[in-house]
Automatic annotation (TrEMBL):
Note: During catalysis, the active site Cys acts as a nucleophile attacking the alpha-carbonyl group of tRNA-bound glutamate with the formation of a thioester intermediate between enzyme and glutamate, and the concomitant release of tRNA(Glu). The thioester intermediate is finally reduced by direct hydride transfer from NADPH, to form the product GSA.
UniProt entry tagged with the keyword Flavoprotein: no
Quaternary structure, from the entry: Homodimer.
Presence of keyword NADP: yes
UniProt organism field: Promicromonospora citrea
GO molecular function, one term: NADP binding
Glutamyl-tRNA reductase N-terminal domain sequence ranges: 7-160
Keywords: NADP, Oxidoreductase, Porphyrin biosynthesis
Site (Important for activity): H103
Free-text domain note: Possesses an unusual extended V-shaped dimeric structure with each monomer consisting of three distinct domains arranged along a curved 'spinal' alpha-helix. The N-terminal catalytic domain specifically recognizes the glutamate moiety of the substrate. The second domain is the NADPH-binding domain, and the third C-terminal domain is responsible for dimerization.
Protein name: Glutamyl-tRNA reductase
Amino acid sequence: MVLLSLTASHRELDLDALERLSTGSSSVGRAVVGACGPVAGAVVISTCNRFELYLDVDAPLSGDAVRHATQHVAELVAHSSGVTGETAARSFTVRTGQEVTEHLFAVASGLDAMVVGEREIAGQVKRALAEAREQETTSKTLELLFQTASRTSKRVGTQTELGAAGRSVVALALDLAEREVPPWDSTRAVLIGTGSYAGASVAALRARGCTDIRVFSRSGRAATFAASHDVQPVDSLVEALADADLVVSCSGARGRAAADRPGDGQDVPAPQDDLHLAVVEGDVGGPAALPHLRTDAAPEASLGHVLDAAGLVRARERAADRAGDEAEPRPLVILDLALHRDVHPGVADVEGVLLYDLATLKAHAPAVAHDVVAQAQAIVDDAAHRFEETRLGREADAAVVALFDEAEVRVRAEVDVAVARLSQELAARGEPGPQEADVDLVARDVRKRVHAELHDKIVAVRARATAEARAAEAALVRDAEALTAEASDRRDADSGARR
């Protein structure tokens, strides 16, 4: 079994490129497992700043096989997202073996996040595995990999200051909004969306003293969410915005496939109505790349923005009418936390409105002390090393089993010889033949001696099998690095051509 990952993140791609690539990502895992025979399992992590595909490949991989697998998966991603296969292929960073483990553990621990140390990603990693289980695309190796990643994340959270810092995209967004809104106990907040980020937003707002929280959702889930989180549901977004100070939008509904839409004007009833993030490392290009979108991808087209400038203008007009001649309408801060933007960029041009989106948050993400990051990285490195030792040890199990099978054949032969000799000795003394207890005693003595002699052979076989596995994976890493370097060169060339 070989671990292979194809990843992309905010570090290599702009958010527009990630948004295009992540469209339809929920179906990629099923597609890969169904279409690629050697792929025994697949888990997809799709968040606001990454789209990652983890594969368990039940076949030996050469450099050509890695290239072929990457191209095949890129075509499937392209089919789901509406970009060209070439665009998808050059957007990926390819990892194999221990690099896969190290990367996932770092991601789960918040070390590769837009806001270093954010804790939401730990929940997203767990949900990715849960969704793979529901879709029946996971495997024994991926189960162990992702469960160990979650345990590693918990260790980082409890043993370092990184976990105690309370860092998150939501917290950073509220920090920026705090400068512009009234005191939190007087702030009127509206949430758009009912997924995990909406729940995190409710908790973060309450922690700061905000009590006037309302929720809107095009999916019709607002009432259920409101009842479970003790907030107020609203049916009219325009009406709610008319007297709001703060909007936190995190439905990600625009990224859902139109083919899954229950009806015009409705939100898509998806497993979670929150951020739809994607990981693919590379550059798909800016607006100039849009003409390359596939013309046959219409069924997968994105839904419209939840909030556009026209709707917001109507809300601001109502706010002005209520204020009358006595005062200007209260300013409005909008936090768009969805990768597939809920809020149309033109909203930023509406008078009295301040819009923060993920690109803004990325630019304001605070740095973390080097020693804190180093401590967390040490935990990640140790966990990854231990996992790989266990995984590579399992790779040697087949050779060890063969040794035990061979030893068992020897045991049976020697027991037969020993029992025959004992029978002759007993017969010569005129005594009855060996009893069952006598045979069992002979068998135990022979097996103990043979297995004791086997110990050194097992150690040698494990060492040899592990070394061979390491050498093979090292070659794969070199091939994957070469493949990623080629894709990076193409991205740089494309970027230079656009400039």
